[in-house]
Predict the 3D structure of the following.
Amino acid sequence: MPAVTESTGASAGVVLRALPEVRRDREGAVRGLYEAHYAELVRFATFIMGNAQAAEDLTQEAFMRVYDAWDRLDDPERALAYLRATIVNLSRGRHRRHLVAERKPPPHLVAVPSAEDDAMGQVGRSAVLAAVSALPGRQRACVVMRHWLRMTEGEIAATLDLSIGSVRTHNKRGIQALQRKLGDLR
């Protein structure tokens, strides 16, 4: 849009004042349509879609499209018909996307046991988690940081504000307690 300068005269001022009026007219007209026909259009979309929530979304999108296309409508008096046609077209598009998604399902994911599960052999994951959660706080923190998070003893010491010797002691005691607890389950 070219910049308006002083030399363009009064005609530019008329054009600039007219633009907000057109916008206000569009907003008022679409608001009026919304207030008068929203519930009816949602019911219409519900019959087409078979789902009330999807119908509300579809109706909202149709109103947004009418608002965006207001200046291009040949006959603003037929805006309600345009809304209905937009709802039908949007529902067709969603139905097509749904059919394509059904034809191409996502690949079936196979559960692979984790390294921790393999290392623990017959012991179930829930038993391990219960045993770890039963450890005293510092032992639990040291065991988890060392063996699950793969942190070094120095990193654990800095994180917990302990000496490296304390980290080693808490880790060793925690592992021994887990071995006693989980050894009873075999």
In short: The chain has eight helices and no strands.
